[in-house]
Amino acid sequence: MVLNSIEKLIEKYENGETSLKEEQVLKNYFTSDTVAPHLEMYKPLFTYFLANQQEQFAKDVPLKTKKAFNYKWISVAAVAVLMLGFYFNNPSDVGTIDDPEIAFNEVSKSLAMISDHFNKGTSTVGYLNEVNKGTSTLSYLTEIENTTNIIFKTNK
């Protein structure tokens, strides 16, 4: 009777259908001295599981924690560098011109240079007008689609 139940439990174990209590019964049976000769091949398996279950890890695991980098000090250092740069960088010539005619000529040159660069930039964007023409021709396609929907009475 006991041998039949052990064989059924082994069959269930091989199919992965045993519960933890049933596996414990198998472990107890195979660790005992009275094991049927035709079931001797399962004995090392269950004795290994029992021995492995009793093993414990004895080493200490050192947990290395990373120190959080404090970004506040970087911002403080950056502000200090900027403040020192502004404090020690006192230019004597800040670009002021006393003569109004020379100042007017310099401003005119600067504005002419800005105008040239701005015109150069807008000339490279001229192709967008062609894109607008293409999208306007696509609007005709929607009109054609609307008329075909009316003709064939399809509602979309």
Your description of this structure?
- The chain has 156 residues and is mainly α.
- 68% of the residues lie in helices and 0% in strands.
- The protein contains six helices and no strands.
- It has helices at 2-15, 20-31, 43-54, 71-88, 100-124, 128-152.
- Helix 1 packs across helix 2 and helix 2 packs across helix 3.
- It is elongated.
- The relative contact order is 0.04.
Q: Briefly, what is this?
A:
The protein has 6 helices and no strands.
Question: Which descriptors apply to this entry?
Answer:
156 residues, mainly alpha, single chain
Low-confidence stretches: none
Helix % is: 55-70%
Radius of gyration: 44 Å
- β-strand percent reads under 5%
Average residue-wise pLDDT: 82
Q: Tell me, briefly, the overall form.
A: elongated
- The ordered string of helix (H) and strand (E) elements is HHHHHH
Number of strands: 0
Number of helices: 6
How far do the termini sit from each other? 76 Å
Main beta sheet: strand number and arrangement?
none
Helices and strands: which structural class?
Answer: mainly alpha
Topology readout:
Elements: H1 2-15, H2 20-31, H3 43-54, H4 71-88, H5 100-124, H6 128-152
Helix pairs in contact: 1-2, 2-3
